Amino acid sequence: MKETFTKGMARNIYYGGSVFFFLLFIGLTVDTVQKLPKTDNREAITDVVAFGKKIWEDNDCVGCHTLLGEGAYFAPELGNVYERYGKSTEAIKAFIKSRPVEGIKGRRSMPQFNLTEEELEGLAQFLKYANGIKANDWPPNIQG
Amino acid sequence: MNLKYESQSVAKLYFMAAIGLFVGQILFGVILGLQYVWGDFLFPAIPFNVARMVHTNLLIVWLLFGFMGASYYLVPEESQRELYSVKLAKILFWIFLVAGAVIVASYLLVPYAKLAEITGNDILPTMGREFLEQPTIGKIGIVIVVLGFLLNVGMTILSGRKTVINMILLTGLVGLAVFFLFAFYVPDNLVLDKYFWWFVVHLWVEGVWELILASLLAFVLIKVTGVDRELIEKWLYIIVAMALISGLLGTGHHFFYIGTPSYWLWIGSVFSALEPIPFFMLTLFAFNVVNKRRRDHPNKAATLWALGTAVMSFLGAGVWGFLHTLAPVNYYTHGTQITAAHGHMAFYGAYVMVVLTIISYAMPIMRGRKANPMRAQVVEMWSFWLMTVGMVFITLFLTGAGILQVYLQRLTDTPLPFMAVQEKLAVFYWMREVAGLVFLIGLIIYIISFFVNGKEGDEVAVTD
Ligand code: HEM
Ligand code: HEM
Ligand SMILES: [Fe+2]
Description:
The structure holds two protein chains of two kinds. By secondary structure, chain A is an all-alpha fold. Chain A is 48% helix and 3% strand. Chain A folds into two domains: 1-39; 43-144, Orthogonal Bundle (Cytochrome Bc1 Complex, Chain D, domain 2). Chain A has five helices and two strands. In chain A, strand 1 (66-67) and strand 2 form a beta hairpin. By secondary structure, chain B is mainly alpha-helical. Chain B has a domain at 240-464: Up-down Bundle (Cytochrome C Oxidase, Chain A), CATH 1.20.210.10. Chain B is 75% helix and 0% strand. Chain B contains 16 helices and no strands. Chain B has helices at residues 11-37, 48-79, 86-109, 112-118, 136-158, 164-180, 190-225, 229-250, 263-274, 276-291, 300-323, 327-333, 337-366, 374-411, 418-424, 426-449. Chains A and B meet through helix 1, helix 2, strand 1 and strand 2 of A and helix 2, helix 4, helix 7, helix 8 and helix 9 of B. Bound molecules: protoporphyrin IX containing FE (HEM) (2 copies) and fe (ii) ion. One protoporphyrin IX containing FE sits between chains B (26, 29-30, 32-33, 36, 52, 55-56, 59, 339-340, 343-344, 347-348, 352, 432-433, 436, 439) and A (72-74).
């Protein structure tokens, strides 16, 4: 680098630039949090949904699946599984409930979690709520 | 050659633990790769999600061991004083190692939901999110270890010489600790949850960790090239400036399709498109400095690792990151094998390689010589190429799989279901597995390189 560009100038860009963009990022975060009610489907967050989210986490479903495109890439996207399953929470529950304990020979297998009816209902309602989040028209189609 | 400061040698413990855990990480990577094509391999004993959390958590933990070891080595030398407390560094080492081992073992021994129950996840739920699977008590342990570590290096720096490298490293480490605190925020609202989850993940790898990366690399480059500190510091400032200027708002590339306002489509695309710049500058910097070198350091392997870091981080983070960072592209690639391809090469190219760089430079010195005998270095350089080429092919095969996945599942007029698409991609996954085995062989050879002795009279000159 040329001598006309001194270390002092580089340092000022570092301090000035990072402080400026850090503050801007905080500002945008505040704005985002305020605007979220328009898209985040929060009116659907009931106690059952919150309970379902906890079951989702306690069983690490995100370690195989994506949810709104984030997670693992081993098993189907679940952000829109409610729609894929014909808007039927019963169908979702039936799928989870019917996983064979020993897996399916040669096929990627989902564990049998032995969940209670209440836990299954929570999970299904949670996935229904996630389906209602407005995510800029993602995913591109029903296959997720 | 002796160490400038005796307390630097505590780094050796950290480096050895890092390498040990690295082996575990890769073994589980190979298991995961096999489960991709042999769906019920080890099922139900080790389901995919469990193997995955072992793989990714071992990665994070060993990189943290690497960063800590690197800091314990670097900070005394830069500060020109002994470490504040060697005893603290040793105590924290054992706490961290035992805690890390217990966490990983518990993933394998207890069903995850049971682990959540035993560790009281109901009291302060933080489990079950990607990379942050550790039981809450484990997370608290991590915070305590990191705070103790920060106290140790902070006290050393504040009462010693404050160099640019020192200060930028410390800023990066403090940032690492601060952003980890978002791991404790798990709201019921999924969108908020996801938004702040990225404060840990993105603001780590594309924010504060870049400060750590750049300062470690700058340190090794000063040592192996003898180039003037003024020049190095100028580069360092401008690289980390660009990293934060692009990377903070660049977080927006994760806010496209998770229920956040649509203005992020623009902000995220524009600023993350600038993120390759600091990685490109890092490459220019490394080659520039090596070309201007004032001495020929006998540790050729360390120089190779340093240049490798610069190139591979640019490829993995810069090029493969840019590939899917514009919102219209990400619409199709979001959460596919393209993401996995990028994640692998970026993590390897930037953070794995920088830790291996500083180990390569510092380990011989801690073992009482300026550089390893040439025979050992040749073996180490073989391992460099095997691991790096292995990773390049892992990335290429996953990219191939990703392109097809995007096409078959999202782009065609007759999209196929996820599972049907995955079956069609099997051949790519098999090839990825082979590349993974090459990587594993490279890693084994890497470890062997520590035990290779020189022939009589082959010792590298021990003068400084
Ligand atoms: C130093 C080398 C490696 C690094 C830094 C690394 C890093 C990672 C990271 C960060 C993730 C989770 C993030 C993601 O991709 O979304 C991951 C997942 C994974 N890794 Fe690795 N890995 C390494 C080696 C390997 C090897 C050698 C294999 C296999 C042969 C492997 C197979 C996998 C698989 C199958 C997943 C799960 C992907 C999914 O979610 O479907 N990794 N690895
Ligand atoms: C060393 C630096 C970097 C590392 C270690 C890294 C690692 C990762 C990992 C592990 C993921 C997957 C996260 C998940 O599991 O959901 C990811 C996602 C992503 N990265 Fe990076 N990254 C780096 C730099 C970059 C850069 C510089 C760019 C842009 C130019 C970028 C663009 C992206 C994008 C767009 C995604 C989201 C992919 C999706 O929608 O599925 N990354 N990165
Ligand atoms: Fe990112």
